[in-house]
Amino acid sequence: MATGNTPITSWSLFNGLRSLSANIAVEIPEAPIGGTLYRTLFLSAVLLFMLTFIINTAAELLRQRFRKKYGRY
Fold first, then answer.
1. What helix, strand, coil percent values describe the chain, rounded to 5?
2. CA separation for the pair 61, 55 (Å, rounded)
3. How does pLDDT run across 11-55, given as a tens digit for each residue?
4. Cα torsion through 48, 49, 50, 54, rounded to 10
5. What phi, psi does 17 have (nearest 5°)?
6. Nearby residues of 8 by Cβ (< 8 Å), 6 or more positions away
7. By three-state DSSP, how is residue 17 classified?
8. Looking at the DSSP assignment, which residues form a beta bridge with residue 4?
9. Phi and psi of 3, rounded to 5°?
10. Which residues contact 28 (CB under 8 A, 6 or more apart)?
């Protein structure tokens, strides 16, 4: 929501945009259940969850590795 929440994207850094999570939150109430838009939003939510999970898992593994290498315990 801090990016302006505008659905129109452009190449300018000074124009607003809509993040994937904001797009899901705004569009899901209007999507008919079982329709193409609903399935696309659901797929994007699953992909967002998987990407977040992978990045957090990699960060945790790096944190544990650095803690073993440089930590006192």
1. 65, 5, 35
2. 10
3. 777 777 788 888 899 899 999 999 999 999 999 999 999 999 999
4. 100
5. -150, 175
6. 15
7. strand
8. 17
9. -85, 0
10. 38, 41
In DSSP terms, 17 is beta-bridged to 4
CA distance 17 to 72: 44
In 10 A of CB 49, how many CB atoms?
10
Overall size of the chain counted in residues: 73
Q: Which amino acid is at 32?
A: P
- Six-digit token pair at 30? 């209007």
> Containing H/E element for 45?
helix 36-70
How far does the chain reach from its first CA to its final CA, in angstroms? 41
Entry pTM: 0.72
CA dihedral 45, 46, 48, 52 (to 10 degrees): 140
